[in-house]
Amino acid sequence: MHPSLQHALDIISIERNATEYSQAFDAVLEVINVFGEPDLANRLFAEIPRAVPETLVTELFNLLAWQTNDNGAAMTREVEAWLREGLDVRKLKIAMGLEVYPFPDAQEMYQVLSTLAEVVPEVAARCQGLITLRKASSHGLT
After folding, report:
1. Beta carbons of 15 and 22 less than 8 angstroms apart
2. What span, in angstroms and rounded, lies between the C-alpha atoms of 116 and 124?
3. Are 87 and 76 spatial neighbours (Cβ–Cβ below 8 Å)?
């Protein structure tokens, strides 16, 4: 793993339970400087060993969204492709852990996540939870 990526993950791991991040944003910005923004989610996923917990990778992706020029839009579209493919449970867990709802269109989100819930038991509860939250937020219940 590239040293800048390892450093960012180490800092996030240390600071994630603190009141606020102090060094993580700089470390994440360095990851962007090294890796660039195009196809960032896919390239980082390939670079990060599977031994790194999904929750830590998700936190990295959430912080990256604050540092990219498009506020994470391109990365979100990349992880939506992971959800459509539904082939890698690790990718699915990372994608569903982000701080944004996948898919700009709620109906597409419901369709993709409902299908995943039926065929990938490991993520069924999270799929249903996201669907419920989005429906509640669209009806002003949250």
Report:
1. yes
2. 7
3. no
Q: What is the pLDDT of residues 102-121, one digit of tens each?
A: 999 999 999 999 999 999 99
- Based on its alpha-carbon atoms, the radius of gyration of the chain, rounded to whole angstroms, reads 15
* Predicted TM-score of the model (pTM): 0.90
With tokens 């993950």, the residue in question is: 9
Alpha carbons 128 and 113: distance in angstroms, whole number: 7
Q: Which residue has the tokens 């459509």?
A: 84
Residue 48: both structure tokens together: 């990060």
Q: Which position has the token pair 């939250």?
A: 133
Q: Residues 57-96, buried b or exposed e (16+ Cβ, 10 A)? A: bbbbbbbbbebbeeebebbbebbbebbbebeeebbbbbbb
The tokens for 134 are 């989005």
The sign of the CA dihedral 45, 50, 54, 59 is: negative
End-to-end CA distance of the chain: 40
